[in-house]
C-alpha cells in the first residue's frame, strides 16, 4: 500500500544519505566547468561565473585520457572474459558431477576469494619482475582474471544448479555428445548468469587500483584510476578542474550502466554471495 | 531439437546413456582455473612467506635466513604497533557505522513507497564509482581553502571560516571513516535486502492478527530471520574494510606524520618507499593469517545457513 504520508517520511529519513551520495557528483560537475582562476576564490562558492566547457577538451588532450580509457576497457573486458571462460567449465563440473576433492576445491575457492590483491602486492611484484611483466597491461589481465575466478565460479555454479538436468539429458538421448549439448543447449540457458558475473568481474577490474599503481610505470600503460591518481599524487600544483573533468567522464557512463544493471546485479550478487 | 520431437512419446531406456566428458574425469575441467590461480595467488603467497623469514635487500635479494627477525622488528616498530590500533579502530567504526545505517535503509527500501526505484538507485550509486575516484573527489571537496564542503557549510551559516579537514591527523582519520562508511553502505544494503525479500509477508499478517506491535514484530520476527544475512554482511565487511587501501592512500597517504596509517598503507610504505621488504612481507603474512581466520568464520556461517535452509525444506 502506497500512502503519501508514509512515502514522505521515508524520503525524509533517506535524504541525508542521498545528499551525501550525490554530493561528490555535484562537486565533480561544478569544479569541472570552472575556469582555473575561479577555483580558489575566497569565500569558496559552488557556481562558476561562467561555464568553461573547454576544460573537458583541454583535459582530454593534456592528460592522455583517451589512452587510459582504452587501456581500462581493454584490461577490464579481457580479464572478465578470461575469468568467465575459466570459470564455466569449473562451475559446470561442480554443478553436474560428484568427485573426490570437491569439498577441498570449494574451500580453495573461498580462500582465494577472500585474499585481496593488496595483501599479495609485494609477492606479485616479485613474480612479475621474475617473468618480465612489469609495466605491461597484459599482466593486469592475468592478475584480475585470477582474482575474479573464485566468485565467478561460485556465482555461475549457484545458477547452474537451478537449470534442470532433463533438458541436457534429452539431448544426450538424441545422440548429442556431452560437449555439444553443453555448448548448444546448456550455455544458452546460462546466459543471464554469465552476463551478471562477467559484469561484476568487469567492474572489479575497472575499479582496481593498488596493483595498477604498483606495476604500471609509464603513462602510456595507465588505466583510468591510475591516470586520475597520477594527476593528484606528488604534484606541487594540481589542476583540479581537469582532475574533476576526468573523474566525471570516467564515472558517469559507468554509473548509468550500473543503474540499469543494478536489479540484475543485486539478484546475482545475493545468489553468489549468500546462498 | 524441434517441437514435434518433444511431443512424441519415446521409449526411454531405463538407464539413460550418459555420454562421457571430453576427458573422463570432471576434475580436468578445474585445471585451467587452478593453474592460473596457483601462479597468481599461490606463488606470491609462498614467496612472501619465504621473504618474511629471511633478511632481504631493498631490491628483493635474499641475504640470509633470520628466523623470525622480521616479525620481531615489526613489533618493536612503534609505527607498526600504532597502525595495528588504527586498523582496529578503522575496521570497527566503519563496519559498525555501515551496519547501523544499512539496517534501517534496507528496511525502508524493502517497503513500497512512491519513488522507491529512484531512492534505491541513488543509494546504490557509490558502488559504481571506483574507490580511487571517490577518494580523489572527496580530497578536493575537503580542501581547506576552496573545498565545496567548506563552501556549503559556510553558505548555510554553520561556520564562519573554512576548516582544514585533512590537515590534522585526528580529524582526517574521522573524515576517512565517514567516507569508508558511505562507500560500504550499498553492498551491505544489497545483502540485507536479499535477506528481507526471503522473509514471507504473511508471517507479519499472522503476527499482526495476534496483536503484535510493530517494534515487537521487528525484534522477535524480522531480526531473528535476518540474522544469518547480518552475520554474513558483518564478516564480509570486516574482510573488505580491513583490506581497504585507496581511501586512506589517496586522501592522506597515511599522513600527516604517518598518523593515519593503517596496516595496508604501512605495508605499502615499507615495501615501496622504505625498501624494507622483509618487514613488509611479514605484515603481509600476518594479514593473510587474519584473513584466513575470518574466511573460516565466514565458511562456518555459510554452512550453518545452508543446513538451516535444508532443515526448513524438510
Written account of the structure:
The complex is a heterodimer of chains A (275) and B (314). Chain A is mainly alpha-helical and 275 residues long. Chain A has a single domain, classed as MetI-like fold, CATH 1.10.3720. In chain A, 77% of the residues lie in helices and 0% in strands. Chain A is built from twelve helices and no strands. In chain A, helix 4 crosses helix 6 (137-160) and helix 6 packs antiparallel against helix 9. The longest helix of chain A has 35 residues, at 240-274. The radius of gyration of chain A is 23 Å and the shape is globular. Chain A starts with a helix and ends with a helix. Chain B has one domain: MetI-like (MetI-like fold, Orthogonal Bundle), CATH 1.10.3720. In chain B, 68% of the residues lie in helices and 2% in strands. Chain B has helices at residues 3-7, 31-52, 69-76, 78-109, 116-124, 131-141, 148-155, 169-197, 202-209, 214-242, 246-251, 263-272, 277-313; strands at 54-56, 62-65. Mean pLDDT of chain B is 86; it is low at 1-16. At the A-B interface, helix 1, helix 3, helix 4, helix 5 and helix 6 of A face helix 2, helix 4, helix 5, helix 6 and helix 7 of B.
Amino acid at each position: 500500500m502506497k500512502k503519501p504520508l508514509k512515502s514522505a517520511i521515508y524520503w525524509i529519513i533517506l535524504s541525508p544519505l542521498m545528499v551525501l551520495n550525490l554530493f561528490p557528483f555535484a562537486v565533480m560537475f561544478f569544479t569541472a566547468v570552472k575556469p582555473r582562476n575561479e577555483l580558489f576564490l575566497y569565500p569558496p562558492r559552488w557556481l562558476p561565473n561562467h561555464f568553461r566547457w573547454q576544460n573537458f577538451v583541454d583535459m582530454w588532450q593534456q592528460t592522455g585520457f583517451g589512452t587510459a580509457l582504452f587501456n581500462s576497457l581493454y584490461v577490464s573486458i579481457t580479464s572478465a572474459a578470461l575469468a568467465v571462460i575459466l570459470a564455466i567449465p569449473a562451475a559446470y563440473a561442480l554443478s553436474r558431477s560428484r568427485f573426490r576433492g570437491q569439498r577441498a576445491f570449494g574451500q580453495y575457492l573461498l580462500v582465494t576469494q577472500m585474499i585481496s590483491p593488496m595483501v599479495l602486492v609485494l609477492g606479485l611484484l616479485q613474480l612479475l619482475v621474475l617473468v618480465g611483466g612489469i609495466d605491461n597491461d597484459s599482466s593486469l589481465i592475468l592478475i584480475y582474471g585470477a582474482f575474479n575466478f573464485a566468485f565467478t565460479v561460485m556465482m555461475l555454479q549457484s545458477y547452474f544448479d537451478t537449470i534442470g538436468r532433463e533438458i541436457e539429458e534429452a539431448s544426450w538421448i538424441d545422440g548429442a555428445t556431452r560437449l555439444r549439448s553443453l555448448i548448444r543447449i546448456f550455455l544458452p540457458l546460462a546466459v543471464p548468469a554469465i552476463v551478471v558475473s562477467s559484469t561484476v568481474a568487469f567492474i572489479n577490474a575497472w575499479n582496481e587500483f593498488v596493483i595498477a599503481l604498483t606495476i604500471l610505470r609509464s603513462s602510456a600503460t595507465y588505466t583510468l584510476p591510475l591516470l586520475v591518481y597520477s594527476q593528484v599524487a606528488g604534484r606541487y600544483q594540481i589542476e583540479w578542474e581537469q582532475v574533476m573533468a576526468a573523474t566525471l567522464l570516467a564515472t558517469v557512463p559507468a554509473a548509468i550502466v550500473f543503474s540499469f544493471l543494478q536489479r540484475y546485479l543485486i539478484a546475482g550478487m545475493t545468489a553468489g554471495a549468500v546462498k | 531439437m524441434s517441437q514435434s520431437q518433444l511431443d512424441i512419446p519415446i521409449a526411454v531406456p531405463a538407464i539413460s546413456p550418459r555420454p562421457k566428458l571430453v576427458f573422463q574425469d570432471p576434475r580436468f575441467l578445474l585445471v585451467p582455473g587452478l593453474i592460473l590461480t596457483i601462479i597468481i595467488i599461490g606463488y606470491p603467497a609462498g614467496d612472501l612467506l619465504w621473504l618474511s623469514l629471511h633478511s632481504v635487500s631493498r631490491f628483493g635479494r635474499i641475504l640470509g635466513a633470520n628466523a623470525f627477525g622480521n616479525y620481531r622488528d615489526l613489533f618493536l616498530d612503534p609505527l607498526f604497533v600504532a597502525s595495528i590500533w588504527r586498523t582496529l579502530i578503522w575496521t570497527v567504526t566503519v563496519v559498525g557505522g555501515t551496519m547501523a545505517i544499512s539496517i534501517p535503509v534496507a528496511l525502508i527500501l524493502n517497503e513500497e513507497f512512491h519513488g522507491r526505484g529512484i531512492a534505491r538507485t541513488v543509494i546504490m550509486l557509490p558502488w559504481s564509482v571506483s574507490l580511487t575516484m571517490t577518494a580523489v573527489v572527496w580530497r578536493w571537496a575537503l580542501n581547506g581553502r576552496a573545498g565545496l564542503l567548506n563552501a556549503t557549510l559556510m553558505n548555510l551559516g554553520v561556520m564562519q571560516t573554512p576548516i582544514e579537514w585533512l590537515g590534522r591527523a585526528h580529524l582526517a582519520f574521522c573524515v576517512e571513516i565517514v567516507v569508508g562508511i558511505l562507500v560500504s553502505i550499498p553492498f551491505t544494503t544489497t545483502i540485507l535486502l536479499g535477506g528481507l525479500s526471503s522473509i514471507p509477508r504473511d508471517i507479519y499478517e499472522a503476527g499482526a492478527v495476534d496483536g503484535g506491535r510493530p517494534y515487537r514484530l521487528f525484534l522477535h520476527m524480522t531480526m531473528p530471520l535476518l540474522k544469518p544475512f547480518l552475520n554474513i554482511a558483518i564478516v564480509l565487511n570486516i574482510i573488505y574494510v580491513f583490506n581497504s587501501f585507496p581511501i586512506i592512500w589517496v586522501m592522506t597517504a597515511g599522513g600527516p606524520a604517518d598518523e593515519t596509517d593503517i596496516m595496508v598503507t604501512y605495508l605499502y610504505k615499507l615495501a615501496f618507499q622504505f625498501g624494507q621488504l622483509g618487514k613488509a612481507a611479514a605484515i603481509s603474512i600476518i594479514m593473510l593469517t587474519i584473513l584466513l581466520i575470518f574466511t573460516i568464520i565466514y565458511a562456518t556461517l555459510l554452512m550453518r545457513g545452508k543446513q538451516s535452509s535444508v532443515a526448513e525444506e524438510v
